[in-house]
Specification:
Blueprint lengths: L30 E3 L1 H4 L3 H17 L2 E5 L5 H15 L3 H5 L11 E3 L12 H10 L5 E5 L20 H26 L8 H4 L5 E7 L15 E4 L5 E6 L5 E4 L6 E3 L7 E5 L1 H6 L9 E3 L5 E2 L5 E2 L3 E8 L6 E2 L14 E2 H12 L2
Parallel strand pairs: 1-2
Antiparallel strand pairs: 2-10, 3-4, 4-5, 5-14, 6-11, 7-10, 7-14, 8-9, 8-11, 12-13, 15-16
């Protein structure tokens, strides 16, 4: 199902060009070889960090290759995720998401409506008119004393818990390295973020986009996942080969396909990191649309199923988010704790 080798740079919306660096007159999601930061020379490390931060200033998105997560590890996570979503509704519904402070559990199709709106009533109206056509399973750190993950019975989903806990830890470890690269690129100490993220207040989200008749996505505002930016610091996105992710060019407003590249992870800046960096780093709108549909008859077509896994990275919930050094002399935002910001956004998103 998956192949994990890549060697080209994709210039979204334009012909492929085999060169590094950002184009000033167009929008580009660069492909970055992360092994150059993890194991390269000091010069390689610095240049890779600079490349990452430059891309995050311009587009807010990168493709990361040679990231260090083995292909079989990713494949196993996708397999167990697919098995979970094939469970009967009555089994999944027992694990239903309940509280934004927890942010754990199963979210059925139509319950979430991602959007840039922050008013609860506005979001509720959008959800009623054009809900997102996806279902998710939300998983947090498993040792939390206040909030517990909601696991299916091992008889219903063999190896699910073990696989996802291992994947959670693997993603956290990669996230630490990416944050070190960002710190280096911002000319901070490499370990600047280490003690601000070690509590692993992250969210592992398994996503399933079931097949759906194309006509149901043709209404105003309809999408598999509406246009939004992410809430936290970074998102590590693992895509299947179906595609559908689109990123909004901040200069033109046009949505550009983020075509799946085998062997890569899509990494994007979230709203909290944009705020933390005083908007030096860009949190960019993106959405999931339906890929080409298969004709059922002369009047109807159906979209293929799609899977993805998103690891939403957050600072420690008690961390104060205020203007980082080297990110301007005047702060645009008042300080806020991670927990207050994330919980507030989640509370408005769900019914």
């Amino acid at each position: 199902m998956f192949s994990f080798r890549a060697s080209v740079i994709i210039r979204t919306g334009l012909p492929v060009k085999r060169r590094r660096g950002l184009a000033t007159a167009s929008f580009r999601i660069p492909l970055i070889d992360f092994s150059r930061f993890k194991t390269g020379s000091p010069a390689d490390k610095k240049s890779t960090a600079t490349e990452i931060v430059s891309a995050m200033k311009e587009s807010g998105f990168i493709y990361l290759s040679n990231h260090g997560i083995p292909a079989p590890t990713i494949e196993k996570a996708f397999t167990r995720s697919a098995e979970f979503f094939r469970l009967p509704s009555e089994v999944k519904d027992k694990l239903a998401w309940e509280d934004p402070r927890s942010n754990r559990g199963y979210v059925k199709i139509g319950r979430e409506r991602v959007t840039q709106a922050t008013d609860a009533a506005e979001i509720a109206a959008l959800r009623e008119k054009a809900p997102d056509f996806k279902e998710t399973m939300e998983i947090g750190r498993d040792w939390d004393s206040a909030w517990k993950n909601q696991w299916p019975q091992a008889t219903d989903a063999p190896e699910f818990k073990e696989t996802m806990l291992n994947f959670f830890q693997t993603c956290h470890e990669l996230h630490v390295f990416v944050m070190r690269a960002i710190a280096t690129g911002l000319e901070l100490e490499e370990g600047f973020f280490d003690q601000r993220i070690q509590e692993q207040c992250h969210n592992l989200r398994l996503l399933s986009y079931p097949p759906i008749k194309r006509a149901l996505l043709d209404g105003e505002g309809q999408a598999r996942a509406g246009a939004h930016s992410d809430y936290g610091t970074l998102t590590l996105l693992f895509q299947d080969s179906v595609g559908g992710l689109e990123v909004r060019n901040p200069h033109t407003g046009v949505f550009i396909p983020a075509i799946p590249i085998p062997g890569t992870i899509v990494v994007n800046v979230g709203d909290l990191l944009a705020r933390w960096s005083n908007d030096v780093l860009r949190s960019t709108l993106h959405r999931v649309v339906a890929p080409a549909a298969r004709l059922l008859n002369a009047h109807e077509a159906i979209t293929p199923a799609r899977q993805s896994i998103a690891f939403f990275c957050n600072p420690n919930f008690t961390a104060e988010i205020s203007c980082l050094p080297n990110c301007g002399t005047e702060a645009k935002y008042l300080p806020i704790s991670t927990e207050a910001y994330i919980v507030g956004r989640l509370a408005a998103t769900y019914s």
